[in-house]
Amino acid sequence: MAVDIGFSIRHMMLECKEAGIDIQLDGSNLRVRGNTEREDLYEKIKINKKTIVQAMTNIPEAVETHYLSRLRKGQEWLKACMLRVEEDQENQKLIDALVEQMLKWSLIDDEMRRLYPEHRGCSLQPIGGCDFAYVPVKCQECADEQ
């Protein structure tokens, strides 16, 4: 069952990300790396460790139903459109639609990660990940790894 960690914890996790502090789940522990100058955030992480671990272990259903499922469906559309563009490289309407949908896909991934910073991992992991998606977009998780 998902845990609603509330606005303050999500805001703190976003603040950590923006400050260059990466929080990863390692079993029932947190692996925290990055900007060591923000002692205030490290203290907040320490105080809220249990809630953060619980939240990262129990991602809200909205992440799957509203975001990840849409991203996977969008990946299917982008893949089909890429194949059509390869066959008809002069079709500017199709190319424009592809670019527009690539932008929308990236914005959905970004929105999900801002609203649910406890979510980690590739948005397309259930279907093999971004590397096997055959589309010219990558989720933030995979793009950050490059």
Commentary on this structure:
The chain is mainly alpha-helical. The protein has 2 domains: 6-57, no CATH class; 61-145. It is built from 6 helices and 2 strands, in the order H-E-E-H-H-H-H-H. The longest helix has 27 residues, at 61-87. It starts with 5 loop residues before the first helix and ends with a helix. The mean pLDDT is 89.
**Total strands:** 2
| Biggest sheet architecture | 2 strands, antiparallel
Beta percentage is 5-15%
H/E element order? HEEHHHHH
Taking all Cα atoms into account, the compactness measure Rg is 18 Å
Strand neighbour order, sheet with most strands: 1-2
Gist of the model:
With 146 residues, the protein is mostly helical. The protein contains 6 helices and 2 strands; from the N terminus they run H-E-E-H-H-H-H-H.
Lay out the secondary structure.
Blueprint lengths: L5 H13 L2 E6 L2 E6 L4 H9 L1 H9 L3 H27 L4 H24 L24 H6 L1
Antiparallel strand pairs: 1-2
Describe the structure using short key phrases.
146 residues, two-stranded antiparallel sheet, 6 helices, mainly alpha, elongated
